[in-house]
Amino acid sequence: MKQGSNNDKKLYNVSMQGFRNEWKYRLPMTDLEIIQARLEALLSNDRHSDKHGGYGVHSLYFDDFFDSCAKENDGGTAERFKYRIRFYNTYEGYLKLERKEKLFGRCRKKASLLTEEQYEGIISGSAEEVFWNTEDPLIRQFCVDIMTKGFAPKAIVDYERIPFVEPLTNVRVTLDLNISASKEVDRFLDLDYLKIPLQKTGEHVLEVKFDELLPGYIKQAVTVPSMVQTAFSKYYFARNLIQSTGGL
Q1: 207 and 174 in contact (C-beta within 8 Å)?
Q2: Of 17, 138, 156, 217, which residue has the fewest beta carbons closer than 10 angstroms?
Q3: What are the residue ranges spanned by the domains of the chain?
Q4: Cα(67)–Cα(61) distance, rounded to whole angstroms?
């Protein structure tokens, strides 16, 4: 191999540090029930799961003046990112700011805790004040992007998640059920917004996340006939749905 190729490979490996594979599949509930039964015999639910093995996920997604996050997803841009604020089940004062980055088909996530005061400042147009009153680098970066690129709330995405984990190999498999979207972003913390189903009745999403190698026994457990890997962005489909129903 030429020296230049070796250098390119090293640069690629450095740039991909922290990024994971994320495989997604749109499947009917009948297939997911088969996969869930297999996984329950092999893996554990993650520590946040309730007695039924899952939890509700509520995410508020942001985009800039030009809807770059949605458009880059549609165009398949190799390097892109998006911001969301998230909480689980009912709101109890716990919020998480996440920046999800994608590079050459792999993903990584940066996250920081967000206080309700910071959230209200961001939503009400006081991002500059939030910036000067925190040392958290992610929150500061988010505030800068709000002030310079016009990031603002665009859509809410809700679903029920049943998560399975394999800590030794850092594998995470999730079944995301009953995904819905809402344009009523000002009601995010209240959970009283109108929800529109994101997929046809009976269709849900399987996600498989891992570092370099997916153990064979897990791959076998999540495999059913006729499944096809897909690039399914909940935010992108939520924006399309909201637009098609006159929400934008």
Answers
A1: yes
A2: 17
A3: 22-244
A4: 11
Q: Which two tokens mark 150? A: 């016009």
Cα–Cα distance measured from residue 149 to residue 71, given in angstroms and rounded to the nearest whole number: 15
Contact predicate 156/181, CB 8 Å: yes
Give which of 145, 127, 153 is closest to 60, Cα–Cα.
153
Average pLDDT over residues 104-130: 96
Q: Give the distance from CA 40 to its chain's centroid.
A: 23
User: Which residues are CB-neighbours of 160 under 8 A, at least 6 positions away?
Assistant: 54, 55, 56, 57, 176, 177, 178
Supply φ then ψ for residue 243, to 5 degrees.
-65, -40
User: Which pTM value belongs to this model?
Assistant: 0.90
Q: What is the per-residue pLDDT for 12?
A: 41
45 neighbors 54 (Cβ within 8 angstroms): yes
User: 87 or 51, which is more confident?
Assistant: 87
Are the CB atoms for 87 and 58 separated by under 8 Å?
yes
Instruction: Render pLDDT for 211-229 as a digit per residue (tens, 0 to 9).
Output: 989 999 999 999 999 899 9
The CATH code of domain 22-244 reads: 3.20.100.30
Q: What is d(CA 132, CA 230) in angstroms, rounded to the nearest whole number?
A: 41
